[in-house]
Amino acid sequence: MKTKSHKLFFRIMFFVIGLMLFAFGIAVTIVADFGVSAWDAVSVGLYEHFHLSIGTWMNVTSLLLILLGGWLRHERPKLSCMITSFVMSGFVDFFVWLMNGVSISPWIGKLTLFLVGVIIISIGCGTYLVGDFAPCPIDYFMVALRDKFQTNIRTAMTLCEGSGFILAFLVSGPIGLGTLLSVFIYGPLIQYFHQHAKELHQSLLYRFP
């Protein structure tokens, strides 16, 4: 029983800490104003038009991704993915509020802050995935694309981010060089930090059996 409770504790710890880092990284990229990731740009663009919070629009786009994923896989959409969306969107709203008024003007400063945000997002994503709870809606959609078109993760991610890029353009989201960069750099970084997070998780389970 003790072993099971420890495993659950560490899963929850990695899940929550990872989501907090993920959300903080998103907020940092928004403040950097160098171009957020495609689907985050969709949420920000909708926020600019309709004035609901960014976190609220993250939930709306997440629900859309889940519905599309379920349709592509010919299965009942896994609405449990919204748990991840609700938790993370709350953190995003908090961190955006916390950094309200922060402004970076030189482009080199924007680029530096953007890259810092990307690294934090990658660490957070790699960490929360270790928790192995409800998957992120965008991950669910990406896997659905991979299965539908019988392709690999890299191509599926490009399709996923590409569709988000088009939608972000249509809603006048904050598209920038960073938006294009995110399509190519998130995959390798998340894989790298996810591997290290798994090793840390196993180490903690070994030390505290």
From TrEMBL:
Record-linked Pfam families: DUF6198
Keyword presence, Transport: no
Keyword Ligase attached: no
Chain coiled-coil ranges: none
Keywords per UniProt: Membrane, Transmembrane, Transmembrane helix
Signal peptide: none
Protein name from the UniProt record: Membrane protein YczE
